[in-house]
């Protein structure tokens, strides 16, 4: 009997633990593989950003996600905040100088301790609250593909930059674009074929563009002189990166 009771208590503890959610862990790490992209390269410096482009009332704005260790906002002023499920979302004011004056703009921000979420435009006189309410901003941060009246998701992109000892790498990945970005470069770059698969390549620019029909990846490699180079702008590297998106391509 005692063994039976202990088993039930243990089961209840497991169920309780499994039902707990951490807002930070639920965001930004889907697909988790892309956030590990930098582990493929031995770099002295690297950046990785996940961005979504939206349109409302003829204006575009962005949701960008980047790794972040700060727990406090660096905003010049926080205009308002809301807390949901233990996570704070803020409408912030910033300032940007142009040639003649310093102009203000506003944006939404959420810091999870692991990631920084930014909604708006880093442009003078752009006011995020005029296009997006706080509840809608929270919905997009929690789910970037949320269906919100009047807001259209135009595109999604992962962009990365890595500084290696022998070269610099710029990588752009366009999930679920159905080859649209590949088509943009089709008139500029030469089509090549390897193992029955085609891709676009420019030896002058050091760029390869590949699509699996669902998503597109672009790799630009700028080699440093006097260094021994390893080629990263290859079909196999493109397929390996797309595999991080959860596609069916073999790494």
Tell me about this structure.
This protein has 251 residues and is an alpha+beta fold. It is built from six helices and twelve strands. It has a twelve-stranded antiparallel sheet. A hairpin with a 3-residue loop joins β5 (102-111) and β6. The radius of gyration is 22 Å and the shape is globular. 24% of the residues are buried.
Summarize the model shown:
The chain has 251 residues and is α+β, with helices and mostly antiparallel strands. It is 20% helix and 41% strand.
Total number of helices: 6
Shape: globular
Q: Could you name the ranges where pLDDT drops below 50 across 5 or more consecutive residues?
A: 1-31, 247-251
| Proportion of residues in extended strands | 35-45%
Oligomer: single chain
- Decide which structural class fits the backbone: alpha+beta
Average pLDDT rating = 86
Biggest sheet: strand arrangement? 3-4-5-6-2-1-7-8-12-11-10-9
Helical amount among residues, as a percent range? 10-25%
- Largest sheet features: 12 strands, antiparallel
Q: What's the count of strands?
A: 12
Q: Give Rg in angstroms.
A: 22 Å
Distance between the termini: 52 Å
Q: What is the string of SSEs from the N terminus onward?
A: HHHEEEEEEHEEHEEEEH
Protein traits:
disordered C terminus; disordered N terminus; 251 residues; 41% strand; alpha+beta; twelve-stranded antiparallel sheet
């Amino acid at each position: 009997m005692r063994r039976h009771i202990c088993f039930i208590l243990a089961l209840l503890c497991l169920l309780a633990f499994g039902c707990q959610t951490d807002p930070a862990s639920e965001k930004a790490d889907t697909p988790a593989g892309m956030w590990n992209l930098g582990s493929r390269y031995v770099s002295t410096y690297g950046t990785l950003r996940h961005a979504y482009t939206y349109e409302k009332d003829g204006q575009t704005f962005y949701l960008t996600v980047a790794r972040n260790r700060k727990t406090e906002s660096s905003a010049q002023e926080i205009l308002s905040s809301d807390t949901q499920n233990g996570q704070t979302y803020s409408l912030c004011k910033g300032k940007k100088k142009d040639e003649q004056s310093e102009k203000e703009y506003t944006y939404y921000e959420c810091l999870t301790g692991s990631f920084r979420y930014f909604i708006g435009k880093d442009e003078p006189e752009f006011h995020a609250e005029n296009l997006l309410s706080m509840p809608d901003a929270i919905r997009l941060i929690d789910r970037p593909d949320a269906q919100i009246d009047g807001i259209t998701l135009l595109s999604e992109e992962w962009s990365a930059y890595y500084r290696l000892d022998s070269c610099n790498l710029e990588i752009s990945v366009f999930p679920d674009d159905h080859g649209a970005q590949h088509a943009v470069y089709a008139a500029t770059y030469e089509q090549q074929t390897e193992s029955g698969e085609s891709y676009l390549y420019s030896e002058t620019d050091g760029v390869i563009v590949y699509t699996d029909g669902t998503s597109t990846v672009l790799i630009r490699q700028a080699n440093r002189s006097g260094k021994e180079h390893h080629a990263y702008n290859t079909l196999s590297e493109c397929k390996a990166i797309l595999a991080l998106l959860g596609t069916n391509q073999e790494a």
